[in-house]
Design goal:
With about 500 residues, the chain is an all-beta fold. The chain folds into two domains: about 210 residues, Jelly Rolls, CATH 2.60.120.200; about 260 residues, TolB, C-terminal domain (Neuraminidase), CATH 2.120.10. It contains one helix and 39 strands. Strands 1-6-15-8-9-10-11 form a seven-stranded antiparallel sheet, with no helix packed on it. The longest helix is centred in the first third of the chain and has 13 residues. The protein is elongated, with a radius of gyration of 24 Å. The two termini are about 40 Å apart. The N terminus is likely disordered.
Length: about 500
């Protein structure tokens, strides 16, 4: 029933079914992010793995009598990892299958021995979801049964001594079960698997949007120490995420240019171009502005970029400048110095106005500034934080996020600041950075959980990208589950055809 409901929601949002994409006949010999694949145990029928490099999808086939008791049989696709981890994938059986207890999921093990100590996040053919574990080699398997069922987003994590298994039907929030009763080695074999639960049968499953993530340690100092970054593109209708490049540096906030040829993002105070055709990365000339943050916006006509540069002549206060889309030695200042920080978020369709979060009078509100005269107009005046302001393509409305209701929620107002109206209301999220699609139909935004202060948007949290209709008439749905936060999607990141989103996710480096 859940799968039917989600399909109906996608149809109403996108106008067509977001079904499982079809693998091409030509398969890569690569194993993608994994290193090895093998059958574990004395399976009667050898399993196999195929990988599609373009879509990042894996198809596993496998046999095996079970994964339970004191021994396992399965097809296993894996790599060795150390320390804490987050393992995430979208999964689905292919075909009706034979045994209702056929299994797919994530498993982490001390070894390839069939009786190895292990922790296993499993989805059964009949919808049962459980976190299973074997405390030592040859011990009996134990489990924690999840109240969730028939989910297709699965996440197995180890943080310290705790293993957590989080599951959701795509578009919905996670349900989590956990255990601290098992202690595996620091280095484990981690990967996805399939078990037919019948030695005579071969089953098949697909794994999409597979990610292995090294989370930030507790003692990481934000804004001084950084994890690596992955630049990703999400095809919203197909639901496929593609990593287009990775970096050991902190890269943040991709803009998609109006001609569709490149992304512009920031790193270490500079702006860079990523060229889709050549996959080349070049630096965008910003002249003296070499301390730029992740508040950079392109004009609707694609001719201008505005930036937030920390001005050394004004105590490194964030100040807004404009320059041509291909760069300039001499950016033009458009917000005043000496009156407080200005954090850019939007440019009006006529290129005459920038809107920003202004630190004025001891608080943060939304302001507009005339590009030619620097004349400011205050648009909001609340005791909470107002941020993330962005014009609609027709220039009639401004979308923003605000804590005025107690949690961070999305709001809409007229371009002159009148008729301020709340758009999101659910209590499980703090919503940031509403980005309107170029066709004016959708809003994509970043949501933090309630573990984060409403007025904060830190790095390295489990966050989601959510999608809603422009008028807020339909409930938001999750379109991507991400490890990220600050820098993930601070700026407008839609493709020109309103079909894709660019964003940044994060992971440390595994030893």
């Amino acid at each position: 029933m859940k799968k039917i409901i989600y399909s109906i929601v996608i149809l109403s949002f996108l106008g067509s079914m977001g079904c499982v994409s079809t693998l091409k006949e030509e398969q890569s010999e690569s194993l993608g992010i994994f290193n090895n694949t093998t059958d574990v145990g004395n399976v009667l029928h050898p399993g196999s793995v195929t990988y599609n490099d373009e879509s990042g999808e894996y198809i596993l086939t496998g046999s095996g009598f079970n994964m339970w008791g004191d021994t396992d049989e399965m097809r296993f696709l894996w790599k060795a990892i150390q320390g804490d981890f987050i393992l995430r994938a979208e999964v689905e059986f292919i075909g009706k299958g034979v045994d209702p207890h056929r299994k797919i999921g994530w498993t982490v093990r001390n070894s390839l021995d069939p009786n190895s100590a292990m922790v296993n996040g499993t989805v059964h053919g009949d919808g049962l979801i459980s976190l299973q574990y074997r405390k030592s080699d040859g011990a009996e398997t134990e489990q924690v049964v999840s109240p969730d069922s028939s989910s297709n987003i699965i996440q197995l994590s180890r943080i310290g001594d705790t293993y957590s298994f989080s599951t959701a039907l795509k578009g919905e929030s996670f349900t989590t079960v956990e255990t601290s009763d098992v202690s595996l080695k620091n280095e484990v074999l981690a990967g996805v698997y399939i078990c037919a639960h019948n030695p005579e049968v071969i089953e098949k499953a697909i794994f999409k949007n597979v990610r292995i993530i090294k989370p930030a340690p507790d003692d990481l100092v934000q804004y001084q120490e950084y994890l690596g970054s992955r630049m990703e593109v999400l095809d919203i209708e197909a639901g496929i995420r593609k990593v287009i490049f990775e970096s050991e540096h902190s890269i943040q906030a991709p803009n998609w240019t109006v001609d569709g040829k490149r992304l512009i993002y920031n790193s270490n105070g500079f702006l860079y171009n990523y060229l889709f055709d050549s996959e080349e990365i070049t630096q965008l000339n910003t002249g003296f502005a070499t301390n730029n943050n992740n508040d950079h916006v392109l004009s609707f006509d694609g001719k201008m970029i505005a930036i937030s540069h920390h001005n050394p002549d004004d105590d490194n206060t964030s100040t807004i400048y404009t320059l041509p889309i291909d760069g300039s030695e001499n950016p033009i200042q458009v917000t005043k110095s000496g009156i407080g920080a200005s954090y850019l978020h939007g440019i009006s369709p006529d290129n005459q106005t920038v809107i920003f979060t202004g630190q004025r009078n001891g608080k943060y509100d939304i302001y507009a500034a005339d590009v030619s005269t620097m004349q400011e107009t205050q648009l909001t005046d609340t005791q909470g934080l107002d941020d993330g302001s962005e014009y609609s393509p027709d220039g009639k409305h401004i979308y923003l996020n605000s804590t005025r209701s107690g949690t961070m929620k999305l709001w809409r107002m007229n371009a002159d600041g009148s008729e301020q109206t709340q758009l999101t209301f659910d209590d499980n999220y703090n919503d940031w950075f509403p980005h309107v699609s170029p066709d004016g139909k959708w809003i994509v935004f970043l949501s933090f959980g309630t573990d984060v202060s409403p007025s904060d948007h830190p790095f390295y949290k489990q966050v989601t990208l959510r999608l809603m209709s422009i008028d807020g008439s339909k409930e938001p749905i999750i379109i991507a589950y991400i490890y990220g936060g600050q820098g993930t999607i601070n700026v407008p990141s839609w493709s020109p055809d309103s079909k894709k989103i660019a964003f940044v996710s994060n992971s440390g480096k595994f030893n």
